[in-house]
Amino acid sequence: MRSFFFYFGVISLVVIVVGGSFCFWKFSPFIFAKSRSQSLSHSDRSAISLPEPALSGGISVEEALASRRSVRSFQDTPISMEDLSQVLWSAQGVTDREKGHRAAPSAMALYPLTVYVVAEKVDGLSQGLYRYEPGHRLVPVFDGPAKDRTMTAIRQPWIMSAPAILLISGRYDDLRGTFGDAAEFCVHAEVGHVSQNVYLQAQSIGLGTLASGGIDGDKLKDAFGLPSEESFLYAMPLGRPQEGR
């Protein structure tokens, strides 16, 4: 009888520890995130010009491809404005000013994507949410700590450790008149182009990232008062990888 209670106690303890750990992993972003019912603090500050991107780097495309990995753990150190600028340029920056072409290909060059930055620890940039404009500047959308508010809409707790997060949204209606039922495919393909650019650019400058779905777009739009026609498709944390990633 004693052995029965002993083994019963051991099994119960294991269930509590494993179950508790899983629940913490799954729901900690929502436990620790600030309520999205807090009043919004929309910014009326003017756009912020970003440093000019570099057009040559220290490693080749082949080296970046060979060493690229998804990163889920980041150092608790800020990233520089120069590095953020470089990554944003790789995502949606203009590469042909005369024709308006950008770094990532787009069906019929209609560019239905928008890239936002959740800035937590970026040297020279206040905490908040910013919209990237392809003219290479940031437009403030929300002033103040924005990561906790973002995490109410994202189910990947590891994103919490990143000093910055890129949020990529698409507007299907921008393409429906041209592509009809293929509009969603074109938007999704373009998100893939952008995320690969971000992966390779981040790798080339010593940063890491992860293409992460699982976004509750309605919660995210409610949290920041973002346009209803945008569909949020990817969250890409950005920072210096921890050893062992």
UniProtKB/TrEMBL annotation:
The keyword Transmembrane helix applies. InterPro entries: Bacteriocin_Proc_Enz, Nitroreductase, Nitroreductase-like, SagB-type_dehydrogenase. The chain crosses the membrane at residues 6-27. One of its GO terms (molecular function) is oxidoreductase activity. Keywords: Membrane, Transmembrane, Transmembrane helix. Residues 66-240 form the Nitroreductase domain. This is SagB-type dehydrogenase domain-containing protein. It comes from Dethiosulfovibrio salsuginis. The lineage of its organism: Bacteria, Thermotogati, Synergistota, Synergistia, Synergistales.
